[in-house]
């Protein structure tokens, strides 16, 4: 059963990060952070307060670590209000729920990389997550921020989707769970990402190849003959496939839409590498299982 | 256009600072323009190159992408804060001097801050760990090897000091 | 030969750099740190179109906006010569008739805050009439291509010597051609084999972490400009021309430079900052963003057609080359780069006939200008790649083929030129041995390649002046115009002075550059500090020393030959006579400063192709080992061995830094995407998307070997470093890829997609 509403986690409509802001028909202006427009700052301490703060303003957005949001604001995007959720304790923490692990949205990448629960229950996930960004990004950036930034080049959702993870949202009318691998289409609704839940599957292995970034990245999970594949960078949003491992070679990449075709990487090359990398990752998992 | 002010209280290089900041004011500008700590440098302005790195509660933070109000209650150390009051250099600074691990010097404050955060956590990192950690910052001049060697040297100095 | 020589006393020692404490403690001042009371902030409006006529500009709404103190459009250039450039003065302070690339400057505003400046820029109305766009060299040269410059801009072709010539506007969007010819073209007919290959070179951006930045203010009638600039004296001259203002009423001050790699030459932010400062009556700071530096300057992409004739026994005979440099929208230094790309194409090998043309083609993209390597990188890419192609075709070992044809020490580069001042074979064998070239594992995706990067060093006909002043107490001022841009010149030059004056390094102070006081210099470029400026500094030091000794000899009533300068005392036999009391006594208790002047410039020589013989030659020997993933095309660098010859290393650690830094910079052009254009639109021109090497990209097998062969023209036999080790990297890697897979790739960068496509193609 899908959610009764859609969550907008697509990027606001603006030029690729870092390029000059299109000011007018007259020309481009390259801004620094000093051109960020003023805003009201709210610091709710609970999820309910945060949702209330969002509802109070026509034009509010959430800030957690802030790196992605500040990049966008530097490029010219502006909001009347910033809702700083970094004080909401309920959004922190990694909990072992038995059949799954729950990770609060404000958990930093560094917390994930060093957490003993994950080391024991989801070691492959922890190892893969450790390759995100760099140490500075990992100490400040949060898993929630990574997912909500929805950058094509970010691997958070790719990994999560490959593991069958779900994203828990709180909205004013209730709590909802959305699979990370779902096709999420947008319409803005005030909803706060509160946690991520990843199932712990006995014998499941995850492998991740980011060596061809920024052109394509692939995550693969194998569990009891079922492969879950996540592909990043090659499409506007991550793409996922799940099915019997024997069917993978035929399914991939045919089931996916056309990859991005641009001078950074052609669609043909991306398409071909999806197949190559997915096959390699599954093979590596299988070989390790045998030994 | 008008905006809001926030009041922040934080410690910068061991000194308590209390300031009214605009909500959109960035930490790097508070440090450079208001506290005259110009050692921290602005470069990419996208939290990527690390030239603007400062220690914030012991973690390397990109001050170009940290609002000043996000530093409320924080303990901040800039490159200037690593030098002792009598001018004695921090082991990381000394190692960079001894190993000539810099050229134009623009990335150097950020690199030293980054190395400091590694050694604060692990006084005995192997070369691979150093290379991986220092991958957070860009240097266009040195080719990195001399920086890595300086961090190795600093680590041994830190270990020696501890004994 | 290869060991680092024992120190004299100071020269040759790894003494801590003079800028070490400032740069590691955050106290070093850069132009970005310069601030004045009431200082305004400049922002510019940049063209959204790659090629368009400006029909009208209306900035009236901007002028009245809050916080705005000055606005500049083409309507505000009265009294100026509004265009600047090197040989060709084609680049306007702000766009006048047309915009010629996305990012071209259209208007500028100085306001109290950036937010106010941006808000005002947004009120400027510009009407453009779009013109057809030429985004590549091929498009720009087509018969139907629009000319970027319908009228010929003001410019010159300099005088050349034997065999060399230049020409302007010889084709569509062709703003300059450099040609070099020697020997008889008929020799091609005598060759057993003729090889023709087209090579394509990538377009890197300098990515200096400190952006282009200047702060300008009026100091009464003096225009004072603080700027991150490598050639402050030519800048002063150009500003005097642009503003029609006396040179001695323009003061250029240069603190530490946060890198430049060639980008920070001539006018960048200065004209706009000065114009806004004059109009507003306030100091104005114009600091570009990283995105803007991508829209201001970059490296020359190039197409190189190389035709080489050899004998069956591998002897090189003849080479002809046609090179097209993508110069971007304005000529900038393209004619100079063309000179060098053309002149260096032969490489350090023996030839009997050379015939090279290098053309600068204007396109609607970021202007290309001086970039470390300066044409030598492009030339080495083509030349050193083709040598391996030739070797494999002849069934010869690539190392052997090079050794057979390399020039020997002292052999003239071309007729009328100076001789090469390194033992090339020794250097090549050094890197080949270190990487394990002989007996290497070759095939199945694993392989090694060699290359020799080569360029003339010391600039062309470059003058340098220096002055030494020594105070009564023996404190030394080293005054010369070479700026500290990271290369360690403040330290190395001071070490030379301290050595010559027999004093301590701490006694020598190298004041920051100020054109009001610093002696004239052409610029910090061309790997010239240790071979050109250092000769002037040496002269100045020796003259000052001579004056001290003559003074002391007169005071001590003896001959100069009987005494020595020993720190700041005079040693006469067993006696030591401190100088300060001697000086005070002679000069009536007031004191004195001893001054020495130095000047160096190679002699004019019309027999030399570039009108003077080259002062020195810079080599970068390189060897690479790769592991190619033949399913994805990903090239993994296993080893990279580079070596430069410092002649005599003044400060070995500083030398090592130059070799390693330049080599890693060379990796960018080889393996990283570089500037990616979608037509005339740059896709990755910012700090996040542009990929420069990180520490994690450098393999453990990266090593530099510093040679001190001792044949340099600089003090103590010094030669220059700084560019050499960048030059061989791309071709060494491409040669290694061929060794690993049998596949030859002639186009940079060697991205996985390109490598895989070449592997696919070869498999057919």
Can I get a quick summary?
The complex is a heterotrimer of chains A (291), B (163) and C (764). With 291 residues, chain A is α+β, with helices and mostly antiparallel strands. In chain A, 29% of the residues lie in helices and 25% in strands.
Q: What share of the residues of chain A does DSSP label as strand, in percent? A: 15-25%
Low-confidence stretches of chain A: 1-21
Low-confidence stretches of chain C: none
pLDDT averaged over residues of chain C: 96
**Overall number of structural domains of chain C:** 3
The spatial strand order of the largest sheet of chain C comes to 3-8-1-17-14-15-16-25
Task: Summarize the helices and strands and which ones pair or pack.
The complex is a heterotrimer of chains A (291), B (163) and C (764).
Chain A: E1 21-24, E2 27-29, E3 40-42, H1 47-56, E4 60-63, H2 67-74, E5 81-84, E6 94-96, E7 100-104, H3 109-114, H4 116-121, H5 123-129, H6 135-140, H7 143-149, H8 156-162, E8 166-171, E9 174-179, E10 191-199, E11 205-209, E12 217-223, E13 226-232, E14 239-244, H9 248-251, H10 267-290
Chain B: E1 5-12, E2 15-22, H1 27-34, E3 53-56, E4 59-62, E5 75-77, H2 91-98, H3 108-121, H4 127-134, H5 145-162
Parallel strand pairs in B: 1-5
Antiparallel strand pairs in B: 1-2, 3-4, 3-5
Helix pairs in contact in B: 2-5, 4-5
Chain C: H1 20-25, E1 40-46, E2 52-58, H2 60-63, E3 68-72, E4 83-84, E5 88-89, E6 91-92, E7 98-99, E8 105-111, H3 114-121, E9 125-130, H4 137-141, E10 154-155, E11 164-167, E12 174-182, E13 193-201, E14 213-219, E15 222-227, H5 232-243, E16 250-254, H6 270-280, E17 284-287, H7 290-294, E18 301-310, E19 316-328, H8 334-344, E20 353-362, H9 376-394, H10 398-405, H11 424-435, E21 446-457, E22 464-470, E23 476-480, H12 489-500, E24 508-509, E25 513-514, H13 529-556, E26 563-566, E27 569-572, E28 575-578, H14 579-586, E29 594-600, E30 616-628, E31 635-645, H15 652-671, E32 677-678, E33 681-682, E34 701-707, H16 729-741, H17 752-763
